[in-house]
Specification:
It is a single chain. With about 250 residues, the chain is mainly α.
């Protein structure tokens, strides 16, 4: 009787597809669609610039990327101070995640600036105060990330990283004000209030889209950092507990 019951029993239903997969896909699409939509809007509603033509519209990517780099490094600054004050490992991991995203945005800013500068200034690169201070900012935070990869002890890595992150952030106001403090061929800061109204809404929407992308990058890297930290903790506990475990067995 039991064998008949087992033979006629329905097979188990297939495992449901993970909602996590669809959630991740949605999170990836959100910043991509936001940036694509903002770019299309900017190109559709704004006419070519009188002097630079369509090249002016690189502003829709170049300027928001620079803003997002500043925001990311401000997060590094705040989380580094929080770690030194409270010693919470999560603050250090969030600072490192923001530093990675900020370094990406800074590199993008420099690359787009070079593309913009070549037809405008006639050179890909010049040691202009704005460009030089931005390059220094990138070097500092790439060094921050390199420092983290060379130190195994978590507490010492977090403390040293916090110090570099705080000092590195001090260069952000220098970058922002460099075009006002020194003689510079770089134009003054572009904001929705300083550009032609034709470009203002495109700049605003692209800034929002890049902010969504920045939040996504930091969030995903932070989640990965938490998993890496937990894995390191488990490995360390098992390594320390191995001698005791052998006696207990």
């Amino acid at each position: 009787m039991s064998s008949r019951t087992e033979s006629t029993a329905a097979p188990p239903p297939p495992a449901p597809r993970s909602r996590r997969r669809y959630g991740l896909t949605g999170w990836v699409l959100l910043p991509l669609l936001a940036i694509a939509g903002a770019q299309i809007f900017g190109f559709m509603v704004s006419a070519p610039d009188r002097d630079m033509g369509h090249l002016q519209k690189i502003m829709y990517v170049h300027v928001p990327a620079a803003w997002m780099a500043f925001i990311a490094f401000f997060v590094v600054f705040g989380m580094s101070l929080a770690y030194l004050w409270r010693g919470n490992p999560r603050r250090d991991l969030l600072a490192a995640s923001a530093a990675e995203a900020g370094a990406v945005m800074t590199a993008l800013t420099l690359a787009l600036g070079s593309i913009w500068g070549r037809p405008t200034w006639g050179v890909w690169w010049t040691w202009d105060p704005r460009l030089t201070s931005t390059a220094v900012l990138l070097v500092v935070f790439v060094s921050y990330l390199a420092l983290r990869s060379f130190i195994d002890d978590f507490d010492r890595r977090a403390r040293w990283s916090a110090a570099v992150g705080i000092l590195g952030f001090l260069n952000v106001p220098v970058v922002y004000l460099s075009v006002r403090w020194w003689r510079s061929i770089h134009q003054v800061q572009s904001t929705p209030s300083t550009v032609d109204p034709t470009y203002a809404w495109g700049l605003r929407l692209n800034a929002i889209a890049f902010l969504i992308a920045l939040v996504y990058l930091i969030r995903q890297r932070y989640r990965a950092a938490l998993l890496e930290h937990e894995a390191d903790r488990i490995i360390e506990e098992r390594a320390l507990g191995a001698p005791g475990g052998s006696h207990a067995g």
